[in-house]
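User: Need the bound-state model for zinc ion:
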Amino acid sequence: MELIKFDSPELHQFCNHCGESVEFGTGRFVNRIPDLNNTETRIANNLTFPLGDFLCEECDSNPQT
Ligand SMILES: [Zn+2]
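Assistant: Bound-state model below.
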């Protein structure tokens, strides 16, 4: 199992719900929400893209979709 460092500078800049990029310039950058859970927790929560370190505003507003 890969160790995930909390202070890792290499963030995975995509939404862990829909997989859309939230990098600067995508239009999702401003309203992205950092997901503070670790990858194992995200997998346990059945997220589709557990490696993503963020949640986009759209998925945060519509958690069931
Ligand atoms: Zn999303």
